[in-house]
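Work Package 3 (structural annotation) set out to generate three-dimensional models for the target panel prioritized at the project kickoff. During this period the team completed the workflow that converts sequence records into discrete structure tokens, so that structures can be stored uniformly alongside our sequence database. As a representative example, we reproduce one entry of 634 residues exactly as it appears in the project archive.
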Amino acid sequence: MKYYLTTPIYYVNAAPHIGHAYTTIVADLLKRFKRMEGYEPVLTTGSDEHGVNVERSAQRAGKTPKEFTDAIAAEFERQWKMLGLQIDHFQRTTSPQHARVVNELFERCRKNGYVYKGSYTGQYCIFDNLYVNDAKPGDACPDCGRPTETITEENFFFKLSAFKDRLLDHYRDNPDFIQPETRRNEVISFVTAGLKDLSITRTNIKWGIPVEGEAPHVFYVWFDALTAYMSAVEGEGQWPADLHLIGKEIVRFHAVYWPAFLMAAGLELPKQIFAHGWLLFENDKMSKSRGNIVRAEPIKEVMGADALRYFLLREVVFGQDGSFSYDALVGRYNSDLANGLGNLASRTLTMIKQYRQGAIPDGPSRFDSEPTIQKVREAFDAFEFSKGLESIWNLIGAVDKYIVTRAPWKQAKDAPPEQLDETLYTAADALRIVTALVSPVLPQSAEKIWAQLGMTDPLSSVRFETLKWGELRVGQRIGEIAGVFPRIDAKDAIAKMRALEEKVTAEQQVLMGKKPEDAPAAEASPKIPIDDFLKVDLRVGLVLTAEPVKGSTKLMHMTVDIGEPVPRTIVAGIAEAYTAADLVNRKVVIVANLQPRKLKGIESNGMIVAASVNDGKPVLAGFHEDIPVGARLK
């Protein structure tokens, strides 16, 4: 049975970090798990390499776009190999074969009457690759807050407006198409509000896939990038995808645009899209502006790839936002891996070597692991990885308790031999079951324990259908015993990881064309007279209420008290950086004398002040001391 899954096609305007690794590690886990279920899984990832952002980044790096994308794509591939991930296809959107498939999809859509040529003059956000409706020159993007650019050009448009009902019908008829439920509701709300036709080509940039016979048109980033999921497996009989695994910030493109493109072309839709949450660093969203991006390589070098995999899958409830910290990483490793699985393997194998000369004894097994096997399978099938791991560790705890109760060190002295045999066989067979179940999450460590148990069949050959209790072969010789999870000193390990993080950061800055010693700096702005600055009315505001704007992943609708009789309504593009709970009762800085403007139909009376460096998310200005609401900033 085939099972085709994908990660996002990662944008090459940033070097790989732990956020990229998180999604790709989960995809690797799912591939290994599906193999245990009897499928023949295929995993695609890749690099999205076109667009004006890439063109400009290459220019800053002193490279051609091709040289720049070659370097970044190679770094992504190196990272996945370094982490031991089983990638079948790494699809680059600069591939000529991919360009052909994109043009074929375009022609199918055009032939079916869903593409037309038109012209557009308006504001465009190059950072989010989207047109901004109802905006004037100089206005900020409502999603990210950065300045928009005025663009006039001929485009090909896709009739997205024609697919509202078909999409809603598909969501209704296939309730698992978008998961988790929060993302599904978000997408349904967005589509229900109405869809506008979508520009799918550009004429004012050169770095893109040319539309055949329609120079100077090149394809818009999403029509290009999304098609990589198909082009990667062209001719292999893998389409449609069984699963698109993505981050929640790109759910709209995957759950609205992509199925509409495929419907228009008369092609099959992917079976499921799962949009997971963000990784927060010590409860703050990771971003370049905060300088708190974490990379996988330092963690792998100090603690091993499996330590990172286990932490991400056990600590974070998949689908929700999760917090990463070095302290929590080391703590989870020592408590669960060193003291849990590692200790069970070491004590069990050591006792077999000491009391039975390294041979698995002949004794009945006193544990029934079938319920655990079933719980783990059901949990992983439902993307509940933390819950599945909890079931495995419950079994580890039960076996530990069994060993303590049976006290084999005493049985070896004053009990009949068959009692010790029973204890050792039960513990060893439980270790076999645990090792098999945990192998999709801890592939490298599980292989080591499997070999130490003396298993002759490859761990990769284990299937759920044949994983049964009490089938450990009697008389089997165990292998050489070695600690798999030695305890780690937190202070020393964290210091090493932080030092390596600085080193890797500097290397990636060079890769991106930046000088390692350069700190992010704002571009120089023309100087203005003091009188111009005094025209800006900056006030201290207290956020009273906050809620995400329906149909937008980035806008937050707030009421803010700035000392006036009636609180202000303000809409700001900060929803990806802050939740509603983060904002309520928070003091912020407001530009109070801006003319009102409508965003998503809501009139915004003011602007919230935030810092944003390079491509980072907004960081709200605030105060270290208590300042009265309504106070003016001077």
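The two ends are 68 Å apart (CA to CA).
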